[in-house]
């Protein structure tokens, strides 16, 4: 007897990918934020090459240092000062590290299906909203976060990186 695929996908069955617009952002200590975009989720494992002892023609590779890409948040400018105050702690040299979660929602936009946790995140860059008197667009600010680790969680539990 064969076991069903844990992801729910069976040969010949189509599994819909998640929608990029169905997400929410959770930052401990921030109560308001109208986030329009999250970018830069990523990591890199450095490659360390070495020659095998006794055989100089064979070059092996092993994993080295792991680095995490900064994550860029774009959000609508509001009267809330929560994100600005968090940024100002870093400007003053008092880094206030927070856990940040990017939560993917199902197609209906109601149920959590996947989550990325940024560990010990803090703001490292900020860009104000471009202002244009002839535009009818929303004022969108940008905040870039540094962090020390990335975890991916599904309903089955966490997978740390």
How does this structure look, described?
The protein is mainly β and 161 residues long. It is built from 1 helix and 10 strands. It has a single domain, classed as Pnp Oxidase, Chain A (Roll). The strands form 2 sheets. Strands 1, 2, 5, 6, 7, 8, 9 and 10 form an 8-stranded antiparallel β-sheet that branches. Strands 3-4 form a two-stranded antiparallel sheet. The protein is extended and about 70 Å long. The two termini are 34 Å apart.
- The succession of helices and strands, N to C, reads EEEEEHEEEEE
**Estimated structural class:** mainly beta
In DSSP terms (H or I, runs of 4 or more residues), the helix count works out at 1
CATH architectural type? Roll
CATH topology: Pnp Oxidase, Chain A
CATH class, anyone? Answer: Mainly Beta
Low-confidence stretches: none
> What gross morphology would you assign?
extended
Task: Report the helical percentage.
Answer: under 10%
- What's the N-to-C terminus distance? 34 Å
Largest sheet: 8 strands, antiparallel
Count of β-strands: 10
User: Mind telling me the C-alpha Rg?
Assistant: 21 Å
Q: What topology emerges from the helices and strands here?
A:
Blueprint: E1 23-27, E2 34-39, E3 43-51, E4 59-68, E5 71-76, H1 82-91, E6 98-105, E7 112-127, E8 140-146, E9 149-154, E10 157-160
In short:
It is built from one helix and ten strands, in the order E-E-E-E-E-H-E-E-E-E-E.
What are its keywords?
single chain; 161 residues; mainly beta; Pnp Oxidase, Chain A; eight-stranded antiparallel beta sheet; two-stranded antiparallel ribbon; 1 helix; 6% helix; CHP02241; Phage_T4_Gp19; Phage tail protein
